[in-house]
């Protein structure tokens, strides 16, 4: 097993030996786990320590202490690599789980939005219309004409205010307002129905239309 140089570098940054204040078997154990002289640029503290312990090579067998403390710095690199690899795998797994969770939340939000939209009352498009209804002549009964017009009843149709407007030669036209639901009432069809009162009505015109 090789030594964990990164862990050893951190340890020796504030210490001269692996354990205690003099060379020991803990230093020898770690020293033997290092196959070649450490790179001084990458691990300056390990390199300093390595050269120092190397100078005791003839005394390695007789140095005091236990190797136990040194074992903490051996095999750690592989374990760290394995742990890092496992962490990477977990992270990828976590990404997949996060993606799945994000998709689930998104689906729930879409479903909630659609449900809210379905339950929301539909906005009814309406228009205010001003219509002119012209009689045949000045002898036409305008009261009867208006009564005939207002007799038309239809879902989505609401008759409003009206007035008689002079158009010349003693003739007056009926100007009437109405509110229609756009999807239910066709103004063209409504004009055709009014034109059927041919005893009174000569023609009709839509003079204004405004959306509500």
From TrEMBL:
Keywords: Elongation factor, Protein biosynthesis. Residues 91-117 form the Elongation factor 1 beta central acidic region eukaryote domain. GO terms for molecular function: guanyl-nucleotide exchange factor activity; translation elongation factor activity. SUPFAM superfamilies: eEF-1beta-like (SSF54984), GST C-terminal domain-like (SSF47616). It comes from the Eukaryota. SMART domains: EF-1_beta_acid, EF1_GNE. Residues 126-212 form the Translation elongation factor EF1B beta/delta subunit guanine nucleotide exchange domain. InterPro entries: eEF-1beta-like_sf, EF-1_beta_acid_region_euk, EF1B_bsu/dsu, EF1B_bsu/dsu_GNE, Glutathione-S-Trfase_C_sf, Transl_elong_EF1B/ribsomal_bS6, Transl_elong_EF1B_B/D_CS. Coiled coil: none annotated. PROSITE patterns: EF1BD_1, EF1BD_2. GO terms for cellular component: cytosol; eukaryotic translation elongation factor 1 complex. Belongs to the EF-1-beta/EF-1-delta family. This is Elongation factor 1-beta. The lineage of its organism: Eukaryota, Fungi, Dikarya, Basidiomycota, Agaricomycotina.
């Amino acid at each position: 097993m090789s030594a964990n140089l990164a862990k050893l570098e951190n340890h020796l940054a504030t210490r001269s030996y692996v354990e205690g204040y003099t060379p020991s078997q803990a230093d020898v154990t770690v020293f033997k786990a290092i196959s070649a002289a450490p790179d001084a640029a990458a691990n300056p503290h390990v390199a300093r320590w390595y050269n120092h312990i190397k100078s005791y090579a003839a005394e390695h067998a007789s140095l005091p202490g236990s190797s136990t403390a040194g074992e903490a710095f051996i095999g750690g690199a592989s374990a760290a690599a394995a742990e890092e690899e496992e962490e990477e795998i977990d992270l990828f797994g976590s990404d997949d789980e996060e993606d799945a969770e994000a998709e689930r939340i998104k689906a729930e939000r879409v479903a909630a939005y659609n449900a809210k939209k379905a339950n929301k009352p539909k906005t009814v498009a309406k228009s205010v219309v001003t219509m002119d209804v012209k009689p045949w002549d000045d002898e036409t009964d305008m009261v009867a004409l208006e009564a005939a017009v207002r007799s038309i009843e239809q879902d989505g149709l609401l008759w409003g205010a009206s007035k008689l407007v002079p158009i010349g030669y003693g003739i007056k036209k009926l100007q009437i307002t109405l509110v229609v639901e756009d999807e239910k009432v066709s103004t063209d069809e409504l004009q055709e129905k009014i034109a059927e009162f041919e005893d009174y009505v000569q023609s009709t015109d839509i003079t204004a239309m405004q959306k509500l």
